[in-house]
Amino acid sequence: MKKIILLTALALTAVQAKADLAPTVMLHHNGQAKYYMYYQIQNAVNDAVDGDTIYLSEGTFQPFNVNKRIMVRGAGSTTIIEGNCEIDISGTNKLTMPVLDAMCFNGDVTVKNAYKQFTLRKCKMVNLIWDGTNEFWDTKVEQCYFTNKLNLPNNVKEFNAFNSKIYNLYPQDYLEGQATFNHCNIGTVSDTISNSSFYNCCIYQTSGGNKCYIIGCVLKSCTFSAYDVKMANCSIIDCKYNLGNNNYLNWGAEGTNKYYICDEYSSYSEQNEINQNINS
């Protein structure tokens, strides 16, 4: 009898240990916590109200959509979402907290509707996509990694990126908004970007058909290598740069570029340092 009791206790302990290791979802509402299984994130979102926070543990979770003014916060690179996420919050145009924080998506994040102060923080995703023609104001991405493409259409106004890594910045004829990139690693810039600023960034613009037009921008304390680039009416301040083939500086009728305290380099070691920064 004692042996049966001991075996039962050991089995229950093993089950509890396995349960403790399983990914969990916690909805925090008014000081109260409600728990869900790893495949029930959408249930937690559906039960949440504006202002709530959903916490995700380490582990792998099913994809979900956000339709309320809530924050979904993971545990960092060990919180993995297997799929795409759609953010479609109706009834308001101003957000007071980051929507997504500290998680990795093995897919895209698509943003709909019109928001002010939309923020993503410490997230990794394949693509960031803005759906529709609604205007987004005071948008922030902080410590994010876009493994394929960060789209930047004209309806995204006052876009700010901090300490982020962008494999391909795709501005889509970004002529009307104002984007600021601070301490970012940018692999390539495709299409046209204007009236924007780059501070303390590392930019590696490769060739291969991705023509880049940079017009009326400020580049300060940046390291960049330019291939297949047309640049005009820019202020380039305290930068280190290498202008490769197929470049058209002072292009068109947009004026001339102004260089302040800049150094041109061409050595292999310095070029390799840029590649290391982009790939790190």
Mean pLDDT: 81
**What is the makeup of the main sheet?**
25 strands, mixed
Please work out how many helical segments DSSP would assign. 3
The total beta strand count reads: 29
Shape: elongated
The Cα radius of gyration reads 23 Å
Low-confidence region ranges: 1-19
Strand content range: 35-45%
How far is it from the N-terminal to the C-terminal residue, by CA?
Answer: 60 Å
Offer a concise description of the structure.
By secondary structure, the protein is mainly beta. It is built from 3 helices and 29 strands.
Task: Describe the overall structure.
By secondary structure, this protein is mainly β. It has 3 helices and 29 strands. It has a 25-stranded mixed beta sheet that branches. A 4-stranded parallel beta sheet has the order 18-21-24-27, with no helix packed on it. The longest helix is centred in the N-terminal third of the chain and has 20 residues. The protein is elongated. The N and C termini lie far apart (60 Å). 34% of the residues are buried.
